[in-house]
């Protein structure tokens, strides 16, 4: 296990609190991320998470919550950074709300990248990816976990979850995360995953990576298209992604596939060696 994996596994803990709310927290991302909120915890969570963040010295609390709970968080100093309509079971909206515990977390914004994003959104980009006989897109399984981990390790200097760890990937596959890859001459050269929330009826399209030698062939678009077909078969209607603001090509991939911009999470995620801002994009299928 390399140093990166050691750091993530030790620092970024995923655990249940309260009556079953799920959080991820640690120094790696310097934040608490409320991934799933149990309704019974709604009233106490804003204060609980704030106290925990102050105790641990984290500079941001980031929460994914149903719209009805938003006022409870606003009253505790949280602000909305993004929202997706009809996210939970094609009915309830989701709000992404955050509380910044250090002004430094809001400084040095990626202003040029935000301008680039604005221009990108102004120019509507649609179109299905062209099929190519050179690559085959297929579902991946536990036998592929080692290869997937290797691709992630070669692609990302850091990542918010330990996706370079083979055991982490195998556990994810056993818990409703579907992996897909593009093969070239029988070798996997690009991967991505769809992480399903069955109860909420939604899925996060995430963990896209393509080896350098095969970039520029729109493999992410081809994999995304295949993942969408699979999600439809699984009965999942709401899809979303958290894409790096600094990666215009990744944002283009989703915009071409008719995903809608929902907002930007400021200095939210440690990826590729730095804490970066992230865009939320979504699609109903």
SSE diagram, text form:
Layout: H1 3-11, E1 13-17, E2 21-26, E3 31-36, H2 45-56, E4 60-66, H3 70-74, E5 79-88, E6 92-100, H4 111-122, E7 135-139, H5 145-155, H6 166-173, E8 177-184, E9 187-197, E10 202-210, H7 219-233, E11 238-244, H8 248-256, E12 260-271, E13 274-284
Parallel strand pairs: 3-4, 10-11
Antiparallel strand pairs: 1-2, 2-3, 4-6, 5-6, 7-8, 8-9, 9-10, 11-13, 12-13
Helix pairs in contact: 4-8, 5-6
What features would you describe in this structure?
This protein has about 280 residues and is of the alpha+beta class. The protein folds into two domains: about 5-105, Gcn5-related N-acetyltransferase (GNAT) (Aminopeptidase), CATH 3.40.630.30; about 135-285, Aminopeptidase (3-Layer(aba) Sandwich), CATH 3.40.630. The protein is about 30% helix and about 35% strand. The protein has helices spanning about 5-10, 45-55, 70-75, 110-120, 145-155, 165-175, 220-235, 250-255; strands at about 15, 20-25, 30-35, 60-65, 80-90, 90-100, 135-140, 175-185, 185-195, 200-210, 240-245, 260-270, 275-285. Strands 7-8-9-10-11-13-12 form a seven-stranded mixed β-sheet. Strands 1-2-3-4-6-5 form a six-stranded mixed β-sheet. β1 and β2 (about 20-25) form a beta hairpin. α5 (about 145-155) crosses α6 (about 165-175). It is globular. The N and C termini lie far apart (about 40 Å).
Please give a quick description of this structure.
This protein has 285 residues and is an alpha+beta fold. Helices cover 28% and strands 37% of the residues. It folds into two domains: 3-106, 3-Layer(aba) Sandwich (Aminopeptidase), CATH 3.40.630; 135-284, Gcn5-related N-acetyltransferase (GNAT) (Aminopeptidase, 3-Layer(aba) Sandwich).
């Amino acid at each position: 296990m390399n140093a990166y994996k050691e750091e993530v596994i030790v620092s970024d803990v995923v655990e249940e609190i309260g009556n079953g709310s799920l959080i991820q927290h640690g120094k790696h991302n310097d934040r608490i991320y409320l991934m799933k909120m149990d309704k019974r915890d709604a009233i106490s969570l804003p204060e609980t998470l704030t106290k925990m963040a102050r105790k641990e010295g984290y500079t941001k609390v980031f929460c994914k919550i149903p719209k009805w709970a938003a006022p409870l968080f606003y009253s505790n100093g949280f602000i909305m950074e993004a929202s997706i309509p009809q996210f939970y079971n094609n009915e309830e909206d989701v709000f992404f709300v955050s509380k910044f515990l250090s002004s430094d977390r809001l400084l040095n914004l990626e202003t040029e990248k935000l301008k680039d994003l604005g221009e990108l959104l102004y120019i509507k980009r649609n179109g299905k990816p062209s099929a190519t006989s050179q690559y085959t897109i297929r579902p991946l399984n536990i036998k592929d976990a080692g290869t997937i981990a290797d691709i992630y390790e070669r692609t990302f200097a850091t990542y918010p979850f330990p996706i370079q760890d083979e055991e982490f990937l195998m556990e994810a596959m056993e818990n409703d995360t579907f992996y897909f890859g593009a093969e070239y001459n029988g070798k996997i050269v690009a991967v991505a995953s769809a992480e399903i929330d069955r109860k909420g009826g939604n899925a996060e399209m995430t963990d896209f990576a393509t080896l350098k030698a095969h970039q520029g062939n729109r493999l992410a678009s081809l994999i995304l298209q295949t993942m969408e077909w699979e999600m439809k078969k699984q009965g999942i209607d709401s899809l979303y992604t958290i894409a790096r603001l600094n990666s215009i090509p990744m944002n283009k991939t989703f915009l071409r596939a008719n995903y809608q911009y929902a907002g930007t999470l400021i200095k939210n995620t440690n990826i590729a060696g730095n804490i970066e801002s992230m865009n939320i994009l979504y699609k109903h299928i």
